[in-house]
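Minutes, project check-in
Item: structure for the 70-residue chain
Input as provided by the requester:
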Amino acid sequence: FQWKSEEQIAELLKNKKEEVADELADVLYWVLLMSHDLNIDLVETYLKKLEDMGIVRREQNGEYSKWYLA
């Protein structure tokens, strides 16, 4: 997907959405397995990654709402 245009992605999803979903499930399985085996907290790591990218959660009315670029 990284190297495809929006039109190519739309066409792929139109014709092969189930196959794409199956592949994503495979990737998720391996990510979860590796993070478990390596004792990596994915939530903590992901939140740090967002922060490093300049994406933050803003508090609104005492609750966190959407993510924004800092």
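Outcome recorded: The longest strand covers residues 63-69.
No further action items on this chain.
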